[in-house]
Each structure stands twice: as structure tokens, then as C-alpha cells.
Amino acid sequence: MPTEMTQRQRMWSAFMRNRTALVGGVLALLVVLVAIFAPFISPFDPLEQDSYFRLMGGSSKHWLGTDDFGRDVLSRIIWGSRVSLLIGAISVALGMLAGTAMGMVAGYFRGKLESLIMRSVDILMCFPDLILAIAVTAALGSNLFNLIITIGIVMTPRFARLAHGSLLSLKESEYVLAAQAIGVKAPRIIVRHIFPNIFGELLVAGTLWIGVAIRLEANLAFIGLGVQPPTPTWGNMIREGVDVLINAPGISVYSGLSILITILSFNLLGDGIRDMIDPKLRGE
Amino acid sequence: MFNYAVRRILQSIPILFIVLTLVFLIVRILPGDPAVAALGDYASKEAVNALREKMGLNAPLWLQYIRFISDLFRGDFGISAITGYPVSTQIIRVLPYTLELTFSAILLGYIFGVPLGISAAIRRNTFIDYFNRIFSLIGLSVPAFYLGILLILVFSIKFPLFPVVGGGDITNLSDNLRHLFLPALSLALIMTAYITRMTRSSILDILREDYVRTARSKGVADRIVLYKHVLRNALIPIVALGGLYAVVLIGSSVMVEIVFSRPGLGKLMVGAIKQRDYTTLQSVMVLYTVIVVVINLVTDLVYKLIDPRIKYD
To answer: Whole-angstrom Cα distance, residue A46 to residue B48?
Structure first.
């Protein structure tokens, strides 16, 4: 019977003890499952209109009511999770890929290359996220694929800055100097020696920034620049709900609540992971 | 300090130039012909071409760029092809609304966020702390426009206390404030959540430092330790990160203006995109980025001012 816990076991036990992280993780998992199994758990077809039952409040048939076209709100919310999670996850993944590569290259090779890359990052960050997203969406168009690209572009500078800073702080570490001394080539150093050590920070940032990406998508949808109707997205639904806010507030309220819960779960999860991997905090 | 400030301001100028160039390029790769947008799809080719000539769109790109920059410096934002009015008139009309919205939100965020963060930090792991942290987390997770809609539901529809839409008469103070309250609150609550969180973690980091422990073991009263040693150092990252978040808040202000149908740069910008009014769009984006560069500049200067370790070389 082993008396010592492995590193992994210790981290997992820390995660379990951290209740907020647990709640976040479970909630996030739930949302992902809802998105994956939407066709099976959705009570109605989200596009199916029923002219007799428009703008009804909650009932036994339509738990969250119906919208202006008689479509079931609950079904549309369930299906809407697909769009938000798809865009949120893939755009962050893209941004992480592109941004981390740029940041690490800039940080390792320094000099003119670093200036070029990091200055471009500074310039891009002079645009508030949403305004950049609006401009690029107007240029590329508002379908699912292009929205993912757009938000990926907006997320890239953030990851570039993070990776650049982390790499700079690790660059003078002994193991890096040792690897350089025995002649390991630069790409191998970056990938095999430095990257595993900044992976934790990247994971935390990525988790937290999924929330940012989802919020950006909802913002765009609310303005009318998101995935176009009749596809249900949470942002679209809030916009449609505002027109009937006085009579049927549920449409906006419930779809907005879905956004809130989803972003909250990723924030909790990201915080939890951060507490887990920060050795200073684990002791407390 | 003065020399540093001047140098920092001069450094911003090339950045501003590149940003303006980027705005110029972005607007020009947007789909659609502004002349067609102005005249409608059924206009004759001659009419469209005449308007293009008049708008200077047939000139080579570098010439358009030079005109763009020189016009900006003379303060000439051009005439909107869609509305027919000078863009600067439209901007001057709505700019005060946007400025009062964003700055009141940022200010309120600091005014409420810092004390709340301090109280959460010094009463760590108590009820007040958990309460603060939950509220902060929710505040960070809620989209600003959704919060605005919820506030409208409660304070304008359920209890008709505040107007739902509009910006009110800017010259009439009480009317102005009545229209400002809910939109500013939507943004301020989120800013407060962010600042509270940052203040709390910043102070907790400082409390662990050796010099704090030394001061307390010397017998210095807790309150003096707090003000003299902890706060001054904790404020540094709070100011730096707060400035960063202020930029995000500018983006959120666009959403809040749309929700409350409040006049402002955001509403102007979204309208310009929908109507393909690229003259207005260009100018509004320029203005937004100028505001961001100014905020970054001010943040940097304040940061250097309060950090005693920086030498002004």
C-alpha cells in the first residue's frame, strides 16, 4: 500500500478539496454534455414553429415558454449551447496556437524579430476586443467558420503576450543554459524544455479566456453580426427577446442566464486549475 | 518625471500613426461600395462613378491615405455619404455621452472596488470575503448587455424608476443623470467586480512580504502598516491592470449603448457598419483608438508616479 502520493495524486486531491474548482469543472462538463447530446435531450425541434402557442410563459409542455414564432425556448437554448461552445473552444485553441508560437519565437530569438512581433501585438491591442471583432466580422462575414477565425484573431495577441512574458522569465533558467551549452538546437529547446513549463499558465489562461470568447460571440450575435437566424444562438435569442421584453421577459432572461452560467463555470474552472498548479498556494 | 512624461507621449505618436493606418486599411477591405450604399442598388453606373469621384474613391490608394491623414490633422472627418451631414458634427453630438458613460463607470469601479477588495483581503476566509468573491466572480461572468437588460427589467419596467432608452438632455443635469444611471451601473458593477478581485489578490500578495512582517513585529499598528506599506505597493498592479481593463470596458460600452439606445460612439459605429457608411466608421474607429492610446498613456504615467522604485531616466 503506497504511503506517498504521486505528484498527480496530490494535484488531483488538491483539486477535489478546492470546492469552487470542482463546481466549475462539473458545471462546464454539464454544458459540454448538453451541447454534445443536444439532439437527444432537446424536447422539440428548435426551428419548429407553432403559431397557436406564441409567447407563452412556462408550461408543462414548454418548460421555459415559447418565443415570437412559437418555437420552444428550452430547445433553442439547448441547441444554442453548440454554437457558443464551438466558437468559444475552437477560437481559443486557434488563438493559443498562433499566439503562443508567435510569443515564444519572439521571446527566444529577441532582436528585430521580437520587436516586430511584439510591436504588432501592441498595435492590435490598441483596439478594444469588441471593436476589433466587429470590424473583422464586417470584413469577413458572419457565418460560423468566419466567426471562429475572427475571434481567434482577437485572442491571438493575448496569448502572444503571455507566452512572450513567460518565455522571457524562463529563458535564463539553468536547464535552458545547460541545454544550449551542450548544443541543443533552438526549436528543440523551445518545444521540449521551455514549453512544458509554461503549459500550466497557458492552460489556465485558455480556460479563463474561453469565457471571453463566448462573451464576444454573444456580443456580436446581439448586434446582429453573429450566426444568422433562424439558427438559435444565445446572443440572438437575447436580441429577439428584447423586442418582447415586457410581455415575455423569459426569452432574454433564460438565454442570458445560460451565457452567465457557462462563462461562470469556465471562470471557476480556470481559477481552480490556477490554484492547483501554483505551488505557493497549494501548501495553504 | 516631466522629461519621462514628454518622452512617453512622443513614443505614443508612432504607435498612433500605425493604428490610424490600420484603421484606414481595415475600412478599405470591407465589402461593398460606399457609393452604391449611398445611392442604392438601382442607381445608374454614371451616378455611382460620379459619387466615387467626388468621394475620392477612384484615386490611387496612397493618395487616399495621404488625404486621410492630412484631413484628420485638420480635424476634417469628411461628410457622411449616407446622411449627408459632416461626420464631425455627428461625433461632437454623441461624444459627451460616451465619455461620461465610460469615465463614470471606470471611476465608480475604483471607488467601490478598492475598499471592497481591501475589506475582503484583511477579513480573509470570513463571510465578507466569500460574499465578495462570489459577487466578483458573477460580475466577471455576466455580459454587460445582459446586465443592462436585467437592470431595465427591474428598475425601468417592474419599478418605473429610470427611463429605458435615450441619453436625455445633456445640458439638463438631472435628466442627464437619470439617463446615465442604469447604463453606467451596468458597466460599473462589472468594473467593480474586476477591481475588487485584483485588489484582494494584490493585497494578499503584499501581506506575505517580509517587510510587512517586519513592520508588524516591530509593533507598528495594523492600520499604519496597511496605509503606509501595503496599500502604496498594492496599488501599483491595480492601476496597471485597471488601465488594461478600462480598454475592455470601452468595448462593453458599445453594447450598453445599444441596449439602452443611448446616443454615443458605439451606437454610431454599429449604425455606420450596418449602413456601410465608411466615412463615419473610419472616424469613429480612429476616435476609439485615440481614447485607448490616451488611457494607456495615463495609466503608464500614473503607474510610474506611484511606484517609488522607478527612476526616471
So the answer is: 43
